[in-house]
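Can anyone check this?
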Amino acid sequence: MSTAHSICEQLYFNGNPPYLVKAMKMIRIIKYLVSIGLLFSLFSCGENPHRYSPVHRAYKDGDTLVWAQKEFDDSDWLPFQENKDNGIFWVRFDIVFDSLSTQLQHKELQVISLGSYDAYWDGHFIGSNGKVGQSEETETPGTFISYLLLPDSLAETGRHVLALRVSNYHSSSSFVWNTFRVGEYSGISNQYKTIGAFMYILAGGFLITGIYFLFTYFSQGRKKDVLIFGLVGLLFFGLIFFEYFKFFFQYEYPFHVKRLMLISIFNLSVSFLVPYFFIEHFNLPKRKLLASCLAAGFLYTLFIHFSELNYDYINKIWSTVMWWGAMLIVIFALFVRRKNAGFIFVILSLCILLYSGVFRYDIGIMLYDYDINLFLSFTMLSLAMLYLLAKNAKEQRLAYEASLVHSERLKNELLKKQLQPHFLMNTLTSLMDWVEESPERGVDFIEVLSKEFEIMTEIADEKLIPIRKEIDLCQFHIDIMRYRKEIEYV
């Protein structure tokens, strides 16, 4: 890139053809976008403390404290999570501490559970989250994410068993999810909040951008692409806000499904509006047909996959449809030779590479590459969309300034045409004769002449004038010619 950059830079300053100047500008923009993406990824480059996750889990309906014992044989239990009716069930996890576990001075369990639970470590009760009950009335909902401090006496190296006695009577979904991780005391939650803070700063940028472009839409010409970009900014703010909501607010587990539904609504809206933005911005032919095909694709995926209640999976499906739908639309824009379509094609290609998982992150907590890659790639695409709107606004401003210059020139030409020296000199000569021969008629002549000049001055600044004023101007001009030629004009 450096060689191409230096060559283009030399050509740029030597006044070469415009396409070379555009190539130079595009290279610069791509470098800026890549730099911003690397800047956002710096928070994941630090050294992460050692953490432990379960190596085995098993589930079983029922309720007996015998299942809390470390040596209990759970080989006949279900090895996977399954959808079930609300009630009481047990979950057992195996975890192994190696020699590196001694680096953790105070071990903390971060437990994620869609239910209230009592926790047993190697058969010893170590804490609760909410209150496990036999019915919805007797159960007190616990938080979705909770933290338990593990006693040092129970944290020696080797195999351990965490058994959770869970009830989920307040859950509005049959989906079951329970897992945990062991790390340094407060280390996991602090790193969650650090990453969440970065993402909320990013969300604030989208919020301000969305509000600004909505105001722009309502105050400076109602263009669809400006409205769509404003809505995308607000919706992506909502998507980030609720995605990282769990890092800062310890909400009860029944709210988790509602939060996932909100995230899916925001994600579906953004996924549809991003390709639709390019349809409107590039002013493509058959826009209604393209938008209908795009909407049909999302409705099809909704109909096929929503019954699975796997919100993460369907969100990935929608995001994938968004990227490839946008790519097909931009390729179509290239085919019909739309301006800046090539630039967006390059940016979209980089975004798809980033989204597809080319870059991997080892951040040591329960975050997926998909989440980070989606937000980084969408930020890059949003900057490209913002560049398109800014460039379009600049072109409109230059066109408006050119129209003002053109308008002033036309105004001057109009006045020059009406006030031709020959016409003006002949009129003044006739006026002198009338003043000498008949002062009263001379005064009338002066009044008619002043009224014509007054009307011409008024209409010079107007784009449209009433037909009555046009008729008056003609009438005054006829009166002037009547005085000059001493002929009765009709």
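Reply from J.R.: I decoded it. The first strand starts at residue 56 and ends at 61.
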